[in-house]
Backbone:
């Protein structure tokens, strides 16, 4: 076998789910010592493809070749045994176990193998790939970056030579992303092949050697990174020219709509997630919130939305104290607020329902009489489907079968269709393709023009600087500073996020 033979080849792969053709005519070659980015809009077939490579699904047609020989994976274990390791967006780790126990889970050596030889083998891999993992540390005590390192170590320890990283930097700070890229470069040097899935175009341009673009379930083109540009890649993804800049909207700011004073909120574990936070937002203003994952952003949003219990402080919206009221009371009292939670399906929408029923959930309590009039809701669903380009076989199709981006568009469309005075958004573009992101930024700008006050929790610092009027930085539950967007830089925000002086 020579070096020109791909480590893995996918030839004319096809996968269908009922009437939906998720993958069609997919062709992809992956070579040793290569970082290969996979790009595509939400619903383009990326998740289905990586599930085929990692043995979760079997293709309906086409073939997979490993080192030039035809291969079929009947299960994820068969794929893993053949050297394919997948690190998913949502980690597959046991929180109540140590790093060592997670590494030994499912190993024939046994769960509680603690021999010196095994530890030495693990530390040798850590040294080779620059991985920092404390073997005796419990997963529940780890940061997001540490958990990711453990996931990578887990697949390398099991002999993976083909690594699939599914949106690995979604909740990373710029510093954590740089650490991950260092590890990926070490994998490349060691002769591994890496598939890198990301919606962050700057990352794709920085780390990848080749880029394959998927559109509507098909491979459109594979390009050398050095011979392409973000503009060309986006146009290939979307199928048309796309404007890649966030419009700077100057909206006239009105009265103060939200005033948060001395707010302290407890986490689910009973610790203080945010402590003594104070800020305000005016009508027509977008206040961004930056912070490393788990700094208290989730609890802040949920306290304002009436979900999390407030320990101390006040939340005053449009002259009314919200403290102690729940979301159902908000609707009954006519409190004009919309909330886009971090957990789209768990908290925002019902996966087994279709678009129409999910839209109906918002207006259900305000409808008069025993019978619910579905006609206006059906009309609104059709309008949203067209306006936001929601890819679904029908407005009566269960939404859990749609891609993350399309689910997010439904949630956003529903919340914005009621013209709220206050819009609270937790990571509204997380995991979304670049075209969908810009659709959502435009929706936020439209809300701003209409005088809506927006609290925008984001993770892309460049977007926060372009979209928001001011940025508040949270570090370990405290506000480490608030800065005008025009005075902000990535470096300043990054330092504030870790509690250093900016």
Residues:
């Amino acid at each position: 076998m020579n070096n020109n033979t791909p480590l893995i080849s996918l030839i004319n792969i096809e996968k269908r789910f009922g009437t939906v053709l998720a993958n069609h005519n997919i062709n992809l070659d992956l070579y040793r010592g290569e970082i290969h980015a996979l790009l595509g809009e939400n619903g383009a077939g990326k998740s289905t493809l990586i599930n085929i490579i990692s043995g979760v699904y079997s293709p309906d047609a086409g073939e997979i070749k490993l080192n030039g020989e035809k291969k079929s994976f009947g299960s994820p274990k068969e794929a893993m045994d053949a050297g394919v390791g997948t690190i998913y967006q949502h980690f597959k780790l046991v929180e109540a176990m140590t790093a060592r126990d997670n590494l030994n889970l499912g190993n024939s050596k046994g769960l509680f193998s603690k021999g010196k030889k095994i530890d030495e083998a693990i530390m040798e891999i850590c040294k080779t790939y620059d991985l920092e993992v404390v073997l005796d540390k419990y997963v529940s005590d780890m940061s997001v970056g540490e958990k990711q390192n453990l996931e990578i170590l887990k697949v390398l320890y099991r002999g993976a030579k083909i690594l699939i990283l599914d949106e690995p930097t979604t909740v990373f700070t710029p510093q954590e992303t740089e650490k991950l890229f260092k590890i990926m470069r070490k994998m490349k040097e060691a002769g591994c092949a890496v598939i890198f899935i990301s919606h962050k175009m700057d990352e794709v341009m920085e780390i990848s050697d080749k880029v394959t673009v998927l559109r509507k379930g098909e491979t459109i083109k594979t390009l050398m990174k050095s011979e392409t540009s973000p503009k060309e890649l986006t146009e290939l993804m979307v199928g048309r020219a796309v404007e890649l800049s966030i419009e700077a909207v100057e909206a006239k700011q009105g009265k103060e709509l939200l005033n948060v004073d001395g707010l302290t909120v407890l986490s689910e574990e009973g610790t203080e997630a945010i402590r003594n936070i104070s800020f305000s937002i005016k009508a027509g203003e977008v206040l961004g919130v930056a912070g490393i994952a788990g700094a208290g952003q989730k609890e802040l949003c949920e306290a304002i939305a009436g979900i999390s219990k407030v320990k101390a402080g006040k939340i005053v919206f449009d002259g009314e104290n919200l403290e102690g009221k729940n979301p159902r009371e908000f609707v009954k009292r006519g409190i004009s607020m919309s909330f886009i939670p971090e957990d789209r399906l768990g908290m925002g929408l019902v996966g087994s329902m279709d678009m129409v029923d999910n839209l109906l959930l918002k207006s259900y309590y305000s409808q008069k009489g025993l019978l619910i009039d579905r006609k206006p809701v059906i009309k609104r669903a059709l309008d949203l489907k067209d306006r936001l380009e929601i890819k679904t076989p029908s407005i009566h199709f269960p939404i859990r079968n749609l891609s993350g981006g399309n689910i997010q568009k439904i949630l956003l469309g529903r919340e914005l269709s009621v013209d709220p005075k206050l819009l609270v958004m937790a990571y509204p573009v997380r995991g979304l393709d670049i075209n969908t992101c810009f659709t959502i930024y435009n929706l936020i700008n439209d809300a701003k023009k209409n005088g809506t006050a927006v609290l925008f929790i984001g993770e892309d610092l460049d977007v926060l600087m372009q979209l928001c009027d001011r940025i508040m930085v949270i570090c370990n539950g405290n506000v480490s500073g608030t800065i005008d967007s025009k005075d902000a830089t990535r470096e300043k925000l990054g330092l504030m996020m870790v509690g250093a002086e900016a």
